[in-house]
Amino acid sequence: MRTVLGAAAVTAVALLAAVAVLGPAVWGGVAAHVDMDAALQPIGAGHLLGTDDLGRDVLARVVVATRLSAGLALSATLISLALGLVAGGLPSVLGVRGGRLVTASIDLAMTFPGLLLVLALAVIFGAGATGAVLAIGVAGAPSFARLTKNLAATVATQDYVSAARLFGVGRARLLVRHVLPNIAQPLVVNAAIGAGQALLAFAGLSFLGLGVQSPAYDWGRLLDEGLPNIYGNPAAALGPAAAIVLAGVAFSLAGEALAQTFGVRRSRHPGPSTPAPTPPAVGPGIPSAELSAGESVVRVAGLTVSVPAESGYVAVVDGVSFEIEPGERVGLVGESGSGKSLTALALAGLTPADVRASRLQVAGTDLLATTGRRRRRSLGASLSMVFQDPMTSLNPALRVGRQLAEVSQVHHGLSRPAALARAVDRLRGVHIPAPRHRARQYPHELSGGMRQRVMIAMGLMGEPRLVIADEPTTALDVSVQRRILRLLRDLSRESGAALLLISHDIAVIERTCARVLVMYCGTVVEDLPVERLAKGALHPYTRALLAAVPAMTTDRALPLATIPGRQPPPGQRPEGCPFAARCAHADERCLRERPPMTRHDGSHSVACWHPRIPEVAHEHA
Q1: Helical spans, DSSP H, in 209-280
Q2: Is the peptide bond before 390 cis (omega within 30 degrees of 0)?
Q3: Phi, psi of 307 (to 5 degrees)
Q4: Which of 61, 38, 64, 41 is nearest to 229 (CA)?
Q5: Of 1, 84, 258, 310, which residue is 20 to 30 A from 336 by alpha carbon distance?
Q6: What's the CATH number where 86 sits?
Q7: How many CB atoms lie within 10 A of CB 614?
Q8: Are strands 359-362 and 365-366 parallel, antiparallel or unpaired?
Q9: Are 528 and 617 in contact (CB under 8 A)?
């Protein structure tokens, strides 16, 4: 009511609702009164819109018909909206084949003209109000479905949807809680406009004799009855026509006002501070496979991730192999496009690309032998993932506490109050001040550092054995970055969970991890302890990355060190060493043969034909 649009919408809808509710009770008797002596009278003092061929007051009949006309239009709109939401939302939560089948069906339905489809369905369902509701509802579903599909496609790629998939959220819950709420605003507008269109369609069917049947009547039937006498009393036909237009305007105003209302999120004012309830212990839920003594948390051998290209599939990650022990902190470093994030997504089962490997195990779960819901539920209980941008990692339509609580509700069977209490406890565990108040807020009300802490707390709602942090500090300032890295390190120590930290910043890896995996062009080229990184790196690419990091002793009079050239595209990788074209030490063998990963000393392995000795570790490659 604070805006002109809102006041106009409320007034129009309230007036329409009042007429629909009170009309039959107040004017029903007048509308049904037959007076043959007053038949077909024009506009006069006693009849503002004249009378029909039975002497009934046209204005009273228009008012009484409001309830049936608006009710049938809203019923058809609800059918269209329900069918459209389901059909349009399915491609975002189904697999590739299922999504394509649903999309093709929607596109096929959209090729039929709407009016012809309504008429055809009206004949199929039969003449009458029920058949008209079904015909208009089904005919309007494809347009809602296509809009929903297009909007949902943009939401389905967000990190918070990926996080929900990782935590094992079912498809129906994923659609209802994470996809549809974030596309509600345009859908509300189109639903309101669709109600006006349904109203017009109903009037058309009734006018043609396929809609409401006598003795019942709606605005379409009144229009049909008044048309033969339009030259003698045009008001008898113009009255119901004006009612259709005004009702459509009311629906459109309501849609625009509701869209603006949904666009404004307000947090609830926190109540008086009370002691937080004791967080419940997490039940058995859906545990991952048990690790045997000495077994690694992650075991990857020959991992290949391929994406579609013009000439088939192209390997973006090619032959990656590594293991991560319980409680170990491992850094995965490399230039953008080296395959770091795709490797992590393959471990989490979140990439739609073609994933193949001779071994792919996470927390005792064989990802190659386990598929579908069972794999999602197992990974959701044992793996946590912290994404790069905390703003896109949290669902903007849900409060922070509800998002965290969902993990315990899905995996551990906790009640809603118990799950919320555990969520508050986890927020407190990642050092968020006033955790009960923060749990009531939406993500946009938190700072970037707090949002990233919330993501970490979400991963700790269970008992994860592996935490994957994909560029968790890129969007944060230096002081907040340091606190987040310290938090990840401390949580790994306290919980015993392994940490895989992905970053293009080698300095971040040095401060947080105990071991470093260096990736280049989709392969791991060096695996070494972090204490050897600064002075003992053997691969020319690793040393070039180190040289590109400025230090306090860097001569500011000289340009910053860079690595000449760039990585070859996935479809154009050379047969030999992928770094050969950018390496100052490459020879003919490097160009012809790809070097295997060879153990150099203890826990230090390198894939290079000419590994350099530690004394020249900072030499520019």
Answers
A1: 219-226, 235-262
A2: no
A3: -120, 155
A4: 41
A5: 310
A6: 1.10.3720.10
A7: 12
A8: antiparallel
A9: no
CA distance 341 to 345: 6
Give 15-23 contacts, CB < 8 A, sequence gap 24+. Answer: 15/250, 16/66, 16/70, 16/246, 16/247, 16/250, 19/63, 19/66, 20/66, 20/67, 20/70, 20/71, 21/67, 23/63, 23/64, 23/66, 23/67
Task: Give the count of domains, the chain.
Answer: 2
For 19-51, the DSSP string reads HHHHHHHHHHHHHH---GGGTT--S-SS-TT-B
**Mean pLDDT per 10-residue segment, the chain (621 residues):** 79 90 89 84 80 86 92 92 88 77 85 82 88 91 88 79 72 80 82 86 88 88 85 83 89 77 46 43 45 75 86 86 91 89 86 85 83 71 78 81 83 82 87 89 86 82 83 76 83 86 85 91 92 88 86 77 84 86 88 90 88 53 38
- Spatial strand order of the sheet with 523-529 comes to 383-386, 466-470, 498-503, 329-333, 515-520, 523-529, 604-606, 598-601
Half-sphere exposure in the Cβ direction for 232 (13 Å, CA): 12
Q: Which residue has the tokens 């987040």?
A: 484
Could you tell me the residue range of the domain that residue 132 belongs to? 62-262
| Global pTM value | 0.66
Q: Which two tokens stand for residue 270?
A: 């926190």
Looking at the domain assignment, is residue 1 inside a domain?
Answer: no
Please tell me the distance from the alpha carbon of residue 201 to that of residue 78, in angstroms, as a whole number: 15
Query: What is the b/e burial string over 280-319, where b = at least 16 CB atoms within 10 angstroms of the residue's CB?
Result: bebeebbebeeeeeeebbbbbeebbbbeeeeeeebbbbbb
DSSP assignment of 475-509? TS-HHHHHHHHHHHHHHHHHH--EEEEEES-HHHH
Radius of gyration of the chain measured on its C-alpha atoms: 33
H helices present in 496-557, as ranges: 506-512, 533-536, 540-547
DSSP conformational letter for 1? -
Contact 155, 116 (CB under 8 A): no
Burial class from Cβ neighbours inside 10 Å (0-12, 13-18, 19+) for residue 564 reads: exposed
Q: Are 62 and 219 in contact (CB under 8 A)?
A: yes
Whether residue 451 is contained in a domain is answered as: no
**C-beta separation of 427 from 446 below 8 A:** no
Give the pairing of strands 359-362 and 466-470.
unpaired
* Three-state secondary structure call for residue 356: strand
CB–CB of 254/9 below 8 Å? yes
CB atoms within 10 A of CB 525: 25
Residue 621 in any domain: the answer is yes
Residue 512 inside a domain? The answer is: no
Contacts of 210 (CB under 8 A, 6+ apart): 119, 122, 123, 127, 131, 132
